[in-house]
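Q: Given only this backbone (125 positions), what sequence would you predict?
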């Protein structure tokens, strides 16, 4: 059975693009979808899920984790690397810890290296 992977990050409509010159919602969506497809081609059962705001991020993730089990949960760099989202990142890590205790947690450095982050913690079957 393929390793189940959850990639969680900001919905493209929730990103402050002033912080990322040259990035647009369309480019971000395309990069994330390319990563998702790439993981599937490598033999993973990958799922991309979005958070929409700081107030609902943890509950959005909790709802997903309540419906599915995952071998690896990857929290995207847009949450982790942005100091403005430090508390959201902390909430997401604790939500994974509480609701998916057996899942490994991975972190990418941007919207194009998710496969490397996942492969550090799970090899496809």
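A: Predicted residues:
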């Amino acid at each position: 059975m393929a390793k189940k992977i959850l990639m969680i990050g900001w919905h493209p409509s929730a990103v402050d693009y002033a912080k990322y010159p040259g990035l647009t919602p369309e480019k971000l969506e395309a990069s994330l979808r390319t990563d998702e497809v790439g993981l599937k081609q490598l033999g993973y059962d990958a799922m991309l899920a979005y958070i929409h705001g700081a107030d609902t991020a943890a509950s959005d993730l909790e709802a997903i984790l309540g419906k599915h089990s995952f071998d690896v949960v990857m929290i995207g760099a847009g949450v982790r690397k942005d100091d403005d989202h430090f508390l959201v990142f902390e909430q997401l890590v604790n939500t994974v810890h509480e609701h998916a205790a057996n899942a490994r947690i991975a972190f990418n450095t941007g919207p194009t290296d998710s496969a490397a982050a996942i492969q550090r913690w799970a090899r496809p079957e």
